[in-house]
Amino acid sequence: MANVRRTGPVFLRHVPDDSHLFRPLPHPTGVYPYRLNIRDVLRSRDERLAEGMSFHMIGDTGSVRHSAFQSLIASAMTQQAHNDGPACERPAFLFHLGDIVYNHGEAREYAKQFFVPYEDYPGPIFAIAGNHDGDVNPGSDLLYQSLDAFMDVFCDTYPRKVIFGNGSKRLSMVQPNVYWALETPLAHFIGLYANVMKHGAITAEQQDWFVEELRYSNSLRPDKAVIVCLHHAPYSADTNHGSSPAMIAFLEHAFKLAGVRPDIVFSGHVHNYQRFTKSYEDGSVLPYIVAGAGGYADLHPIAPLGDVRVEDGHPAIHQVRLENYCDDRYGFLKISVKKLEEGLQLVGEYYTLAQEAISLEKPEATLFERFVVPFHSAVTAGASRASVN
Asked: Which ranges constitute the DSSP H helices of the chain?
């Protein structure tokens, strides 16, 4: 039995009702429909993204407790971004999947948990907020609202030094809202915010925006991939969070309303790496990727077979397969979107750092797996079968 791997997601059997923790969203800093064009950030470097682009993705990098891997993961990604080779192979930016600062999104923690580790990362850093980014410390002497610091760092009205950045040269980002879309030459990113609860919650207003953004992104096909990012993992096989019934229901309802599915879904929240595929009746397969092993002090293990804490027989997860996972190493994603004669292709690479990396000055990350997602021009089912190299 020790060699038998779990092949599907799970639900936790006992999850307390934490809906009372919901916090109002901040006001947008930009205008509806809350889109940011990467040309306005990369400027002269934008032309190299037209035929192929690479970027990093990672979640849960913060940790109020000491974690050597906070800086080690940041250093490994920085090395990749500086590597020699074709411009389209060097990551042009980092898209953060949330939980940048623990435990309560406080401004005073941003220098230690974000600005210092990522000071030398050469590209822009975009982000969606995680539950910890939106939480509020009840014991704080300084009164603040949910996501105040996140909005200052990532949703500013123009780029400038952040007053609590401890002198960092990294300027504030100009995302237009806490939920927003990033427009790039080869992909349309839709970023969601699911509040502070364990399994998340999304307002009706954000749902309406998401449905319209899905419809808009579908009009960009086949020239652009449609990528959805949210912090709370819809599907997971771990023992700490498990799958999120709320996020599964939200996404499937929105897909049905829009008549559109994305090409791939990325999330964090769970502190490990997992790659799922969900099969639909029309024959399409939608990849779901969890990449939340970005540096937090503890990793989350996959539930052993027969674990009484979890349920794996629920109908909502019957069509979802766990293709691969890594729950004992920290790591990050390098994603490439390429324009081929037959259409767009996404290549995902997950890199990990071994425990021995703590003793090395500049540890190099090791490739754990490589997966490929070809994109087709289907209108109502934008996902297709993924393969692994």
From this structure: 39-42, 69-82, 110, 131-134, 148-154, 204-218, 245-258
Q: Distance between alpha carbon 54 and the CA centroid of its chain, in Å?
A: 15
In angstroms and rounded to an integer, the radius of gyration of the C-alpha atoms of the chain is: 19
| Largest Cα span, the chain | 59
In one-letter notation, the amino acid at residue 308 is V
User: Strand 225-229 and strand 187-191: pairing?
Assistant: parallel
Under 8 Å between Cβ of 180 and 152: no
Task: Give CA–CA dist 144/86, Å, rounded.
Answer: 45
CA distances from 75 to 129, 227, 296, 332 (A): 22, 26, 15, 11
- Look at the chain and count its residues: 389
Walk along the chain (389 residues) and give the pLDDT tens digit of each residue. 345 789 999 999 999 999 999 999 999 999 999 999 999 998 655 566 788 999 999 999 999 999 999 999 999 999 999 986 776 688 999 999 999 999 999 999 999 999 999 999 999 999 999 999 999 999 999 999 999 999 999 999 999 999 999 999 999 999 999 999 999 999 999 999 999 999 999 999 999 999 999 999 999 999 999 999 999 999 999 999 999 999 999 999 999 999 999 999 999 999 999 999 999 999 999 999 999 999 999 999 999 999 999 999 888 898 999 999 999 999 999 999 999 988 999 999 999 999 888 877 777 899 999 999 987 543 344 444 456 66
Burial of 206 (0-12, 13-18, 19+ CB in 10 A): buried
How far, in Å, CA of 273 to CA of 299, rounded?
Answer: 10
CA angle 56, 277, 275 (to 5 degrees): 40
Residue 141 CA: distances (Å) to CA of 48, 64, 137, 144, 149: 47, 18, 9, 9, 15
| Other residues' Cβ atoms within 10 Å of the Cβ of residue 228 | 26
Q: How far apart are CA 283 and CA 385, in angstroms?
A: 9
Distance CA(153)–CA(29), nearest Å, equals 12
- Angle at which helix 204-218 crosses helix 245-258, to 10 degrees, equals 50
Separation of alpha carbons 73 and 294, rounded Å: 7
